[in-house]
């Protein structure tokens, strides 16, 4: 995973340049508050030291080795008994179903853990090999490069996840946000492969993002505590909905969350490069945000109040795996209501940004601590001196 000074060491390094680069890289002081600059390290003098320096400067390298090792282990014996299979592929296929359906079980945790590593690799590789060079080519100032990379990865992931989520929903009877179907087919124990892959990959992504947040691998914003609360509630919603078979509600919630985040990140990156597209993209973001994060979220929440009990079975039956009762209703409503409250809070900040943008054409994120400081720093050069 990247650290807060990752943007300053994200150029594509070759293994033959590690010795000359490692000393200068380590002289760069950390940007995390409350820490002193690191002491310079001597250049590595052993082969192991060279590889350690390479892995330290290229944070995608170790996750890539883990991924390749798992794939290699599976290719040695690509059968059901291979211990690597549940890490790479969804488990519990149900024979005799067409299209093939998949159940749930403990092996799903192996799939999630492996794709946490996959998302770690994807994030670091994209930031260091794609987004950092792009930021330098655009002449971004040094303080904005890290934010540009973070938002760029957000655009990549949520564009893919929102598109795939909409595709998955379009192949169910709940299209388009038909809340009655959340409960009519309960319990949703079996799923098609695309649904299960999507849901567990979302679990892996949010778990990986929580690790990034908890370890403060990204510079904390002013709403750090709200973000922590959001990630905790999101992980609880995903885990509980998977365990107790409320996954169709979860699918709808995913789409409402992911769709708006694309436009938020896009508007921020356009703002970083002073693009004339900032205003129309920001206006689009506001429209998508209020439609998905407030209107659709309120519809989902209202359905928990009005349809959760009246549509579908209302009982606790451990053999049938029916868990639709007043306890699960209160828990579901409480967690979704917490998400809605956070959305309302962020909507207030968005309204303030929009008001200031209309008056002064300034679109600074209310949550950021570093953007003023970024203006004082020199532009990042396309090549290191």
UniProtKB/TrEMBL annotation:
<keyword id="KW-0256">Endoplasmic reticulum</keyword>
<feature type="region of interest" description="Disordered">
    <location>
        <begin position="363"/>
        <end position="385"/>
    </location>
</feature>
<comment type="similarity">
    <text>Belongs to the sphingosine N-acyltransferase family.</text>
</comment>
<keyword id="KW-0472">Membrane</keyword>
<dbReference type="GO" id="GO:0005789">
    <property type="term" value="C:endoplasmic reticulum membrane"/>
</dbReference>
<keyword id="KW-0812">Transmembrane</keyword>
<keyword id="KW-0325">Glycoprotein</keyword>
<keyword id="KW-0808">Transferase</keyword>
<dbReference type="GO" id="GO:0050291">
    <property type="term" value="F:sphingosine N-acyltransferase activity"/>
</dbReference>
<feature type="transmembrane region" description="Helical">
    <location>
        <begin position="109"/>
        <end position="134"/>
    </location>
</feature>
<protein>
    <submittedName>
        <fullName>TLC domain-domain-containing protein</fullName>
    </submittedName>
</protein>
<dbReference type="Pfam" id="PF03798">
    <property type="entry name" value="TRAM_LAG1_CLN8"/>
</dbReference>
<feature type="compositionally biased region" description="Polar residues">
    <location>
        <begin position="21"/>
        <end position="33"/>
    </location>
</feature>
<feature type="transmembrane region" description="Helical">
    <location>
        <begin position="278"/>
        <end position="305"/>
    </location>
</feature>
<feature type="transmembrane region" description="Helical">
    <location>
        <begin position="330"/>
        <end position="351"/>
    </location>
</feature>
<feature type="domain" description="TLC">
    <location>
        <begin position="143"/>
        <end position="359"/>
    </location>
</feature>
<dbReference type="InterPro" id="IPR016439">
    <property type="entry name" value="Lag1/Lac1-like"/>
</dbReference>
<keyword id="KW-1133">Transmembrane helix</keyword>
<feature type="region of interest" description="Disordered">
    <location>
        <begin position="1"/>
        <end position="43"/>
    </location>
</feature>
<feature type="transmembrane region" description="Helical">
    <location>
        <begin position="197"/>
        <end position="217"/>
    </location>
</feature>
<feature type="transmembrane region" description="Helical">
    <location>
        <begin position="60"/>
        <end position="76"/>
    </location>
</feature>
<feature type="transmembrane region" description="Helical">
    <location>
        <begin position="155"/>
        <end position="177"/>
    </location>
</feature>
<dbReference type="GO" id="GO:0046513">
    <property type="term" value="P:ceramide biosynthetic process"/>
</dbReference>
<dbReference type="InterPro" id="IPR006634">
    <property type="entry name" value="TLC-dom"/>
</dbReference>
């Amino acid at each position: 995973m990247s650290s807060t000074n990752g943007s300053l060491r994200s150029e594509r390094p070759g293994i033959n340049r590690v010795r000359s680069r490692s000393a200068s890289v380590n002289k760069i002081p950390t940007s995390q508050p409350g820490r002193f600059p690191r002491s310079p390290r001597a250049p590595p003098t052993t082969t192991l030291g060279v590889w350690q320096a390479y892995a330290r400067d290229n944070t995608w390298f170790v996750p890539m080795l883990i991924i390749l090792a798992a794939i290699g282990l599976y290719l040695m014996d690509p059968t059901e008994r291979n211990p690597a299979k549940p890490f790479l592929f969804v488990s519990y296929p149900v024979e005799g179903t067409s299209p093939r359906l998949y159940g749930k079980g403990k092996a799903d945790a192996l799939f999630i853990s492996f794709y946490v590593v996959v998302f770690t690799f994807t994030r670091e590789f994209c930031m260091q090999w794609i987004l950092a060079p792009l930021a330098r080519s655009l002449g971004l100032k040094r303080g904005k490069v890290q934010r540009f990379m973070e938002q760029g990865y957000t655009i990549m992931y949520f564009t893919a996840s929102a598109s795939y989520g909409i595709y998955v929903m379009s192949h169910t009877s709940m299209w388009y946000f038909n809340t009655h179907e959340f409960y009519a087919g309960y319990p949703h124990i079996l799923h098609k492969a695309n649904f299960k892959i999507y849901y567990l990959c979302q679990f892996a992504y949010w778990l990986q993002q929580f690790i990034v947040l908890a370890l403060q691998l990204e510079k904390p914003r002013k709403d750090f505590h709200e973000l922590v609360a959001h990630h905790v509630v999101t992980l609880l919603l995903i885990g509980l909905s998977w365990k107790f078979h409320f996954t169709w509600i979860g699918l709808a919630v995913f789409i409402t969350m992911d769709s708006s985040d694309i436009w938020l990140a896009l508007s921020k990156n356009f703002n970083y490069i002073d693009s004339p597209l900032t205003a129309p993209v920001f206006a689009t973001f506001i429209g998508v945000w209020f439609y998905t994060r407030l209107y659709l979220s309120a519809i989902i929440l209202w359905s928990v109040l009005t349809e959760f009990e009246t549509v579908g079975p209302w009982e606790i039956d451990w053999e049938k795996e029916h868990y639709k009762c007043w306890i699960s209703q209160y828990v579901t409503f409480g967690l979704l209501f917490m998400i809605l409250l956070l959305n309302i809070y962020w909507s207030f900040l968005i309204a303030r940004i929009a008001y200031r943008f209309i008056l002064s054409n300034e679109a600074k994120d209310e949550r950021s601590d570093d953007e003023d400081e970024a203006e004082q720093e020199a532009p990042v050069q396309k090549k290191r001196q």
